[in-house]
Amino acid sequence: MPCNQSQNQMHGYLDGELDAVSAANFEKHLEACPDCKQSLAEEEALHQSIQKANLYERAPETLRMSLLGSQQKLPAVRPFPAARVSPWRWLAVAAGLLLALFLGWRQVQLSRGLSETQLMAASLVDAHLRSLQPGHLTDVESTDQHTVKPWFDGRIDFAPPVHDFANDGFPLLGGRLDVAGGRTVAALVYGRRKHIINVFVERAQPDNYWNGTGEAQGYHWLAWQRNGFSFCAVSDVATPDLGQLRDLIAKN
């Protein structure tokens, strides 16, 4: 990590092993350290990916019966104490496997003609899903655009456009930093009736424009360019609702 915060402190925070004072101090540190916030988001994404990967296979019943039969034929022996293996070593092995699987998947998708925008949209849908976990939706929770917009100052190298559209049915709920495609992006959180819309914003890249619409994992996404920024709205609301929010952002 670029700052002086130790990896052990971050891992302890992720595993819920810090006491209340240490956890509060670490969360206060996160508010002023985008590098640690990005590292924490990447660690959380890795944990969730490993949990969802189902990296195990149930042994066949014939193998179990064979082992039981072998044990009955062996003399009883006193077992040696099991060697203690660091769970982080297994995590590193699983992470390497997941990385290899991801790179292979990405190559397959590219070979199928998926654009960079579609790959980025898939990453942003994953970020949207992470945000729906308790405590991950906002870093700054406010309906006041004059509170949310200054919060990003010094945390990212651009000022995302922030507006409240409560009168049009899209109230501002807050904002946060997120990670997509290996880059830190701003995430503006809006409500739509009882639904959540994440609008991801980054400075437009010359070789990577977000444009288009689609669906991934049951969520709709809509990407567009405006005034030197790339936007991508992700939610389970209908695509016309995302289009309405896009038009509201474009007018301001």
Q: Could you describe the 3D structure shown?
A:
There is one protein chain. This protein has a seven-stranded antiparallel β-sheet. With 252 residues, it is an alpha+beta fold. The mean pLDDT is 79. It folds into two domains: 7-48, no CATH class; 115-250, Phosphorylase Kinase, domain 1 (2-Layer Sandwich). It has helices at residues 7-14, 20-32, 34-53, 61-73, 87-111, 116-131, 145-151, 239-250; strands at 140-141, 172-180, 183-192, 195-203, 212-216, 219-226, 229-235. β3 (183-192) and β4 form a beta hairpin. It is built from eight helices and seven strands; from the N terminus they run ααααααβαββββββα.
Short account of what is shown:
The chain is α+β, with helices and mostly antiparallel strands and 252 residues long. It has 8 helices and 7 strands, in the order H-H-H-H-H-H-E-H-E-E-E-E-E-E-H.
